[in-house]
Amino acid sequence: MISTLHYFSNAAAVISYAPASYIRLEWLSAPATVAELRSIYEHVLRAMQHHRVIRLMSVHNQRPPIPPEIQTWLTQEWLPRAVAEVGYRYCAVVEATAPLSRLAARAIGTGMKGLLSYEYFETDALADAWLRQ
């Protein structure tokens, strides 16, 4: 189990800081509105600023698919801002088991090309090891 410090949570996600110097965003199975999803990502950005980290682990095990509107907002607005404001550079995605959730994550990953390094993993432990290197 990866040790973390709680930062924020709601019905859809838990944000925490891992002492290995990254933010962990763990998605839960509860659906979230567009406004709630944006809020979660804004909390991620604030957590990255607060802890002065440039790495993120996004755990999608239970996450419902992200709506296309949020996919576009992430790739066109949030990601460039996170890169500019905190130097966001690395994203480890622990993939969901649901095919539509995996597809949505891959679509966002395609939008990240050139902005940061990202990889997809089957387990938290593999993602953690990649982020620590």
From TrEMBL:
It comes from the Bacteria. This is STAS/SEC14 domain-containing protein. It comes from Hymenobacter humi.
